[in-house]
Amino acid sequence: MKSFFALLISVSFIIASAAKTGHVITFRSPSLYPESFTWDPKSHNFIIGGTRHQELLSISESGVAETLISDTDLPENSSFLGLAIDRRNNRLLACIHRTPTATHPSPFNALASYDLKSRRLIFFTPLLDKNDQNPIATVTEIIHPAAANDVAVDSSGNAYVTNSDGDFIWKVNIDGEGSIFSRSEVFKSHPVDLTDDYHKCGLNGVVFISDGYLLVVQSNTGKLYKVNVNDGTAKTVNLNKDLTAGDGITVRSDGVVLVVSQHKLYYIKSENNWDEGVVFDETTLDVEGFATAVVVGNRKRVYVLYGHLMEGIMGNGNREEFSIVEIEENEDKEDNIWLFVLVGFGLTYFLFWRFQMRRLVQNMDKRVA
What parts of the sequence cross the membrane (predicted)? Predict the structure, then answer.
């Protein structure tokens, strides 16, 4: 049996791997400090949202940055956070958030929809927290009732926005009508370590799965939730490990879900419609770059955004360059892990069989004696 446990330990070492970078895109935009980005398959460009500027940039694969949208009508000191493209309706959806300040003590949250052809605003929907309840904020005695963080869009054009401070989800239909979609108690069913730097950040990255549900990452618990888009009911996806400080999320065409954190990129797979899942690979990222988002770009390449966000939050930086970096997966990693697991089960069965045969021989020897 010792050999089996040693085998399992070897599997855990296979899971962890250093980042294998491919295409690196460096672009210039002074003090942008982007938190989010998405991939536009029509223009074959990335779209970046800044936290210090009220503009959205288009970034080519060669690193050429151009202003796509500059919205001077946004509330003062607001930021672009989560972004998503509605391909069917050729729209860009953008989360707008302004943190409370001395001059503006109340937070502001909204979802903006822009036409990608004309670049004109389609609608601007304020997102409200009518109940103003946040257990984490109560504990820390700091009231931040809402923070629009990330957005996903379903096949009907409905948008779903995560509230990372209040742990609930808004819904904005295709006409721009907003409402609170899910306040499931499941989102508050897991303990939060208040000593973690990211303990205030709850529901974060969100992605729509074509089978009719959302997958949502919760940063301060490392949990992944499956949320029904018909009624907002939620359940925790049973994973083999937590997604520590999970932030952005996306899904590949083969069904593999990717979750990024400051430290790692997680590769997750499910065989039963995300009732359960397996983290089958982890890639260590550049901590200083502070990755906050992940997308699948041209030719199914996986990219993370290094926006140096913490430097921007601390307000002590004036960085001019940021990067989008391709993370290459070890294509044999998933197959190797499952192979080792199968070998482990086979070894266990063999040891059990040998143990039973030994007992059988001993019993036969006793009878002969």
Answer: 337-355
